[in-house]
Amino acid sequence: MVTVGVDLAAEAARTAVARLDWHDGRARLVDVRTGADDEVIVEAVTEAGKAGIDCPLGWPDRFVDFVTAHRAGHVEVPDGLTGRAWRRDLAWRVTDQVVHARTGLTPLSVSADRIAHTTMRCAALLAELARRGQPVDRRGGGAVVEVYPAAALKLWGLPHRGYKRTANLAALGELVDRLKDAAPWLDLGDHEPLCRTSDDATDAVISAFAARASALGLATVPDGDHERAAATEGWIALPATPLHTLVP
């Protein structure tokens, strides 16, 4: 099985794509690219058994309803709610709130943060994948699944903060060391130097790990209470088992 991880950004310059080949109890990093444009992403996803995208796959349903109501001039604040209380469901999706409850981490708000620019790009990518015959299910059942590297790292007991940007290269190197210790079956090959100097590349690798967990049925899926929202808002698949379970 080949899984792909996409650390998506609004522009190609900060976007990375990683391909992991899972075979004979090993995971080999076949390729990792930074500066990935849309065509590189679509081709990688099309050739993969499963792809994990680090980006919201949709907006909160209540935010979409709010914008529609605002356009028509009919915004109403729910009775008994003021301030942040009524804006919470506009800013965070159901899956974001589930992730926070489980991990203590708060995903960026797709309706109130700059991650929205990335999600606009993602929406176009999902549409292109669908046009090319790839099944797209925002709940994670199709060709792609939404992932969150920081949460995956935390659940696997690995460093999940403080390794991003050039000023934190030492911390990034420590994360790579810890990952190799926790997953002795991982072969980064000639791509290890890039993973040690680019947090985008490393996040893409972690996204490919999370895609593997989803493909094996070892990640969270929306239950009956959350499935309807997940179908439009997206669903972050969190690893549900230890890291070593990703290989036979």
Automatic annotation (TrEMBL):
A Pfam family reported for this protein in Swiss-Prot or TrEMBL: DUF429
Protein name, as recorded: DUF429 domain-containing protein
The organism's place on the tree of life at top rank: Bacteria
Classification via InterPro entries: DUF429
